[in-house]
Structures are given as structure tokens and as C-alpha cells.
Specification:
The complex is a heterodimer of chains A (about 190) and B (about 30). With about 190 residues, chain A is mostly helical. Chain A has one domain. Chain A has seven helices and two strands, in the order αααββαααα. In chain A, helix 1 (about 5-15) packs antiparallel against helix 2 (about 20-30) and helix 1 runs parallel beside helix 6. Chain A is globular. The N and C termini of chain A lie close together (about 10 Å). With about 30 residues, chain B is an all-alpha fold. Chain B is about 60% helix and about 0% strand. Chain B has one helix at about 1-20. The longest helix of chain B has 18 residues, at about 1-20. The N and C termini of chain B lie far apart (about 40 Å). The chains are: A mainly alpha (about 190), B mainly alpha (about 30). At the A-B interface, helix 2, helix 5, helix 6 and helix 7 of A face helix 1 of B.
């Protein structure tokens, strides 16, 4: 899941207009951004599921960045940075958006999300495995993207109206969210990324 | 890697557009 995370962040911006959108967008993929260097160095890995299609067709051994406690710690770190930079409220919002990544992943992942970093204690891993039904997970992502773009557009247009400025910028930004989200979803579903 | 660069570019372009909208200030939003 990639596009759905962005859609969720855009929806949050619609409700929390004081928090910068770029920060929400980075927060929503923060766990994946930390995953990249660990993946490159071989600390965290991907394992193709035999017979699975390209979309969500891997078991992700991200035992640090995508463990429950690891995700909480990474989100707390980002929340503290946002609270320091802007406000306590923005810190809470950014932290929750960052942790929402783990919750959305929980829905689609194939039981590969550990509770403790490094899968300490070898506890059962979590994941409801909606990726086994690609059409359902893709539909949820699409709904998140469309809802996010709509909620963002509604808030952005209202802010522009209140300031007496034109809504062109609000429409452009909303369309960018919608088009990029759909584009990323298509790339993800067809296996061109991920 | 290209995908990560693409995502970061998207965030930068969208962030630049969004920051021109008259949102309430992020700094001190608790007050």
C-alpha cells in the first residue's frame, strides 16, 4: 500500500489545516522511508510469495520499522520533531498520521508485522492479509485517495474563499493528489513499483 | 530508488503549491 497512505494524509489535512501538507505526506510514509536504507543494507528484506501477483505479493521482513513498538517509537520521534517545529497539536497529528501507516498496513499485510523490534521473543506476527484479495485492497486504496482529495479540496476551497482569493490553487493541488494517487496505485497494482 | 525520488518530488511540488494557500499558521497553532 502506497497510494492509500497519501490519500489518508490528504484527508487529515482537510481536518487539520494548520499542519503543513508536506509534513503529513512525509509522516504517512515515514516508516517506509526509514525502511529504505535498512532494505538497501539487507537488514530488512522482501520475500516474494510463490504464486502471488505483483500487487502485495511479498512478505515484508521489516522487523524494526514495521514492528508495533518500532512504529510507535518512530512515530513518537516524528511527533516530537513536529511539536518542536510547530505546535503540540501538530506534533500529535503528525505522530498519529505516522502511526496510521502501521494500522493501514495491518489490514493488507500477510501476517508479517511483528510486535517487538527485531521480532524479539518470536511472538506471532500480525496482518489481516487483504492483499490476498487484490481487488479489495486496491478498491480501499482508491477510496482513500478519492476521499482524501475531496476532503482536501473542500478545506482548501473554504480557506481560499475565506481569504477572498481564487480557488484555482485549491483545485490544482487537489487534482495533483488525485492524479498522483491514482498513478501510484496503477504502478503498484501492475507491479511497476513495490 | 527512482520511485522514492518520484515520491519526494511529489511531496515537494505539492507542498509548494499547498503552502501558497491561505491556511492558518502552523507555528503556535495551540494558541
Amino acid at each position: 500500500m502506497i497510494a492509500g497512505h497519501f490519500g489518508f494524509a490528504a484527508a487529515v489535512k482537510g481536518r487539520e489545516p494548520a499542519t503543513p501538507l508536506w509534513a503529513l505526506m512525509l509522516a504517512t510514509v515515514w516508516l517506509d522511508l526509514v525502511f529504505v536504507p535498512l532494505f538497501v543494507t539487507g537488514i530488512e528484506t522482501l520475500q516474494k510469495v510463490p504464486g502471488a501477483g505483483p500487487y502485495g505479493g511479498s512478505v515484508i521482513h521489516a522487523d524494526y520499522t514495521h514492528s508495533l513498538v518500532g512504529a510507535m517509537l518512530l512515530s513518537l520521534f516524528l511527533a516530537a520533531a513536529a511539536a518542536w517545529a510547530w505546535s503540540a497539536r501538530s506534533g500529535i497529528v503528525i505522530g498519529l498520521v505516522s502511526f496510521s501507516h502501521w494500522l493501514l498496513d495491518l489490514v493488507v499485510h500477510r501476517s508479517d508485522l511483528p510486535l517487538l523490534p527485531g521480532n524479539a521473543g518470536d511472538l506471532p506476527k500480525l496482518g489481516f492479509g487483504l492483499w490476498r484479495i487484490p481487488i479489495a485492497s486496491a478498491a480501499i486504496e482508491l477510496v482513500l485517495v478519492i476521499t482524501g482529495a475531496l476532503l482536501y479540496w473542500r478545506a482548501a476551497a473554504a480557506a481560499a474563499r475565506a481569504a477572498g482569493s481564487r480557488a484555482l490553487l485549491a483545485i490544482t493541488s487537489s487534482l495533483l493528489i488525485l492524479v498522483f494517487g491514482c498513478f501510484v496505485l496503477v504502478l503498484d497494482v501492475t507491479g511497476l513499483v513495490g | 530508488m527512482q520511485f522514492i525520488v518520484g515520491v519526494l518530488l511529489f511531496v515537494i511540488v505539492l507542498g509548494a503549491l499547498d503552502s501558497r494557500l491561505p491556511w492558518p499558521p502552523a507555528k503556535g497553532a495551540d494558541n
